[in-house]
């Protein structure tokens, strides 16, 4: 009947059928498997060794140890299952010096190898105080009926298995002891693959789930007494009656309780998150108070940890009868998840800024973010009773943003490895669940998810590594026939971290930021994101006025410093091609740079320089190793040094030392860490592939945090804002600077327009080469500046007017008194209106070369409520009446608008908070207006 319905839908054009789909077991969530000893491994044997059976190398394996069970829900839709099976070869030495043993109840021991960075399962003790040659029985059951029973011993050749699965609902892959005890029972499922018709198989929890953790009466009374002291709040919460973008600082974050004293509510009036405390911690809702929307449809856990190969839920409740929506009364009957960490305490503290930013120069926002931090402490059960997890939920005042992070603390003397973790698992109500179609095209919930675990791109979409929208196989009432609606938010790294946690070295995750939107409007969503970044990472609002110099000749540098001081510039960057070497430890080079820094400081100018990190080849021993080839090359930028090599350690030390000894105040870091994996097992500061990305990210972000805390401005062509960087490239095409000057100007305004929706303008740089760049000859070049003063000035006006700093790259800022006067006039103009020119940008019309283009800054809290700038790309004067939307200025009745410095004229706002503004724009020129 099911396939008949599907055929009917297909004939109607509703669904494109994909008969005989393939999915490998390694693509499924194997954290739901059960294993008695060690942890299940993907790609290696259970001991972490390269997989082989009977001396023959194998690929795409699942390494397990008896007794193990992997349970798969086929939904009656799978047709075939194929796999190889065998006992893995092992050459582990359980007598090695780095072996740790843990005794078992039967007198035997479990062996682990321990290094500074890794804990690895070696095996279970057999005869003669070592690991025996294993024997196992592979069993496959379909709906309880045995389909395979195959004994195998170590050294035997792999066997290939192929089974027909027609109409089977549940398939169980079992590995049992072969009758001689568990020692050496290292089993491999080799390339296990399912063929299915339409609905892909998914793993489900194994039968060996044990007894769920129980909160004892003493613990509950302790928590209940703390909850009772919180202020009471009544659900449902009231919808907000103001626009936070116009009326900031109207609500503060507060922690409340509900009247039943079983639920805690964290709310700032814009958003709220509700937590059930008994019988275990679980988020029961995320509420968008700007729209009145309850955003979650089901209760799940607060995330998960995979420790030494075994997965554990962080809190969480199960037993919801329907996952399409939540009824409050259902929560009363829900139970803790087996093997989950259990809540034992919570505390409330003032929110702390993520980085102790130095605040050493002008910035639009120097305020520390404020709010409340709600921290839950959870503890593992039984063997994990000395493992503690702290979940921190930081709710900011005045913005609809919550930050979450995790700490893992080991109170025992036995280390463990965090193989992987999920910082967030939230079952969102889906905006749509089409019957068929490509799930990747389904509309996702209207929420912004950002994390500081980001790299490899100029914008957040390219850089984001942790946001995953996954399916919910338990949501069986969804409309999508294949149950592939992406409706669970999972926040996790794509690989690793694979880090060791000891009694003296706890683990801290990255931070995730969650911000619901109240609209699908691109400008409004952009305003949400820009305001969020300006609040949680206020260092990006500094925006100093800088020049790029391509020489370290002392006289050239001093002349540039003098010119910067004369016209009001604030910073000089010794750019690529200048000859500065921040990796140098040469005392003469350091001394020469220090003299230039001192000279600049005397003139009130900050001096800094450029360093290239990635996109360079160092050596076979240093560069990242491609996991596909086992050699360097073929990675992002072709090849890059591994930051966890000895070279990487030295590089970071040299950069810090250079900055400290010279007094450099600007760091331009080209080709920052782009996210390269590294399969090397010889680099000193990482173990292998699984921990390579995490540890390299830690290296680079530790440097940026240190610089931010020490007042060093950081230009990085990657999205490291939440880790301390201050500016990234807006996204221009460098060869376009070889085009004629008039075309450069229009392209520049197009880039400025498109690149400032999701990022504050202060967080972007653009480019203006003063000398020839990528060719183009005289027609493309601004030098001599006095000869092309109109183009030079227009470049400055359209960039400074947008609040965007450009890299003015060349040997000088001016060549004549007239040029000097022009530059000074523009800088004086920019500084006079600096606050409004760095405020939020409203996009009015993109440059197209045919009609006017322009934008408007808005600041409802400022003296100037708005600043509009219009351009005319044509050869004739242009008269237009422009519809000017003033809603985000905060004005509601009248606006006083002045054309440049002329007397203001009063305009009555229309019903939509707009005015019709008559303007005259000079040919190939511009005009600006101030709104008060």
Explain what the structure shows.
The structure is a single chain. This protein is an alpha+beta fold and 932 residues long. The protein is 17% helix and 31% strand. The chain contains 13 helices and 55 strands. The strands form 12 sheets. The chain has an 8-stranded parallel sheet with strand order 44-43-42-41-40-47-46-45. Strands 28, 29, 30, 31, 34, 38 and 39 form a 7-stranded antiparallel sheet that branches. Helix 11 (789-800) packs parallel to helix 12.
Approximately how much helix is present in the residues?
Answer: 10-25%
Task: Report mean pLDDT, rounded to a whole number.
Answer: 94
Main structural class: alpha+beta
Uncertain segments are 1-19
Q: Radius of gyration in whole Å, from Cα? A: 31 Å
């Amino acid at each position: 009947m099911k396939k008949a319905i599907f055929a009917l839908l297909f004939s109607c054009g509703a669904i494109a059928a994909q008969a005989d789909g393939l999915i490998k077991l390694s693509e499924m969530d194997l954290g739901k498997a059960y294993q008695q000893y060690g942890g299940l491994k993907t790609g290696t044997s259970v001991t972490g060794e390269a997989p082989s059976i009977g001396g023959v190398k194998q690929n795409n394996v699942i390494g397990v140890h008896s007794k193990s069970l992997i349970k798969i829900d086929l939904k009656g839709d799978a047709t075939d299952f194929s796999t190889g099976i065998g006992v893995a070869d092992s050459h582990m030495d359980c007598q090695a010096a780095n072996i740790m043993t843990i005794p078992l109840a039967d007198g035997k021991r479990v062996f682990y190898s321990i290094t500074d960075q890794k804990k690895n399962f070696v095996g279970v003790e057999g005869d003669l105080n070592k690991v025996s040659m294993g024997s196992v029985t592979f069993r496959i059951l379909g709906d309880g009926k045995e389909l395979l029973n195959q004994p195998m011993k170590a050294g035997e050749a792999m066997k290939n298995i192929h089974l027909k699965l027609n109409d089977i609902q549940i398939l169980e892959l079992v590995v049992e002891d072969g009758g001689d005890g568990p020692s050496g029972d290292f089993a491999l499922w080799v390339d296990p693959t399912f063929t299915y018709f339409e609905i892909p198989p998914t793993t489900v929890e194994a039968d060996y789930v044990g007894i769920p953790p129980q909160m004892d009466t003493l613990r509950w009374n302790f928590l209940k007494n703390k909850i009772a002291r919180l202020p009471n709040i009544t659900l449902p919460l009231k919808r907000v009656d103001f626009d936070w973008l116009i009326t900031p600082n109207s609500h503060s974050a507060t922690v409340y309780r509900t009247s039943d004293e079983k639920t805690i509510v964290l709310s700032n009036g814009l958003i709220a998150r509700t937590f059930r405390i008994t019988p275990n911690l679980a988020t029961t809702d995320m509420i968008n108070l700007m729209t009145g929307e309850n955003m979650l449809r089901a209760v799940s856990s607060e995330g998960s940890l995979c420790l030494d190969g075994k997965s554990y839920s962080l809190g969480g409740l199960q037993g919801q009868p329907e996952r399409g929506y939540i009824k409050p009364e259902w929560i009363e009957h829900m139970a803790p998840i087996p093997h989950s960490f259990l809540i034992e305490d919570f505390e409330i503290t003032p929110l702390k800024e993520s980085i102790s930013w130095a605040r050493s120069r002008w910035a639009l926002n120097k305020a520390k973010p404020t709010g409340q931090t709600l921290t839950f402490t959870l503890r593992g059960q039984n063997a994990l009773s000395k493992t503690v997890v702290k979940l921190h939920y930081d709710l900011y005042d005045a913005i609809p943003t919550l930050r979450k992070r995790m700490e893992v603390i080991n109170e025992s003397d036995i280390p463990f490895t965090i193989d992987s973790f999920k910082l967030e698992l939230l079952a969102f109500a889906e905006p749509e669940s089409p019957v068929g179609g490509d799930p990747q095209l389904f509309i996702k919930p209207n929420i912004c998810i950002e994390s500081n675990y980001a790299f490899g791109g100029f914008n957040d979409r390219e850089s984001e590594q942790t946001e995953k929208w996954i399916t919910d196989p338990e949501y069986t009432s969804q409309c999508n026939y294949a149950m592939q609606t992406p409706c669970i938010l999972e926040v996790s790294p794509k690989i690793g971290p694979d880090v060791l946690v000891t009694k003296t070295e706890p683990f801290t995750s990255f931070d995730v930021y969650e911000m619901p939107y109240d609209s699908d409007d691109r400008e409004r969503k952009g305003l949400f994101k820009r305001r969020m970044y300006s609040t949680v990472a206020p260092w990006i609002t500094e925006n100093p006025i800088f020049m790029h110099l391509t020489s370290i000749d002392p006289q050239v540098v001093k002349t540039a410093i003098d010119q910067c001081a004369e016209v009001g510039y604030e910073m000089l960057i010794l750019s690529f091609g200048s000859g500065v070497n921040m990796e140098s430890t040469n005392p003469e080079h350091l001394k020469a740079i220090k003299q230039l820094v001192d000279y600049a400081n005397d003139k009130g100018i900050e001096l800094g320089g450029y360093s290239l990190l990635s996109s360079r080849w160092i050596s076979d021993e240093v560069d990242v190793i491609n996991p596909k080839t086992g050699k360097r090359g073929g990675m992002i930028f072709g090849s890059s040094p591994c930051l966890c090599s000895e070279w990487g350690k030295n590089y970071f030390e040299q950069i810090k030392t250079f900055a400290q000894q010279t007094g450099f105040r600007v760091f331009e870091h080209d080709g920052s860490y782009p996210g390269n994996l590294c399969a090397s097992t010889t680099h000193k500061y990482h173990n292998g592939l699984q921990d390579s990305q995490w540890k390299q990210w830690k290296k680079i972000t530790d440097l940026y945090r240190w610089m931010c805390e020490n007042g060093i401005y950081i230009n990085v062509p990657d999205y490291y804002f939440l880790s301390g960087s201050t500016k990234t490239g807006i996204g221009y095409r460098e060869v376009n600077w070889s085009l004629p000057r008039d075309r450069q100007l229009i392209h520049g305004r197009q880039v400025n327009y498109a690149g400032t929706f999701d990022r504050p303008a202060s967080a972007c740089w653009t480019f203006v080469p003063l000398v020839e760049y990528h060719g183009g000859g005289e027609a493309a070049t601004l030098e001599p500046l006095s000869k092309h003063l109109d183009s030079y000035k227009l470049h400055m006006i359209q960039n400074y007017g947008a609040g965007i700093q450009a890299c003015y790259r060349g040997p000088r800022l001016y060549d004549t008194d007239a040029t000097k006067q022009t530059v000074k006039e523009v800088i004086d103009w920019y500084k006079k209106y600096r606050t409004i020119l760095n405020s939020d940008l409203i996009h009015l019309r993109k440059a197209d070369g045919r009609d006017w283009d322009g934008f408007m800054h808005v600041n409802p809290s400022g003296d100037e409520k708005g600043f509009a700038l219009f351009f005319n790309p044509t050869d004739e004067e242009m008269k237009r009446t422009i519809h000017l939307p003033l809603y985000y200025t905060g004005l509601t009745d009248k606006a006083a608008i002045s054309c440049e410095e002329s007397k203001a004229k009063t305009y009555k706002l229309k019903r939509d908070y707009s005015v019709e503004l008559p303007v005259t724009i000079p040919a190939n020129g511009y005009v600006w207006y101030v709104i008060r």
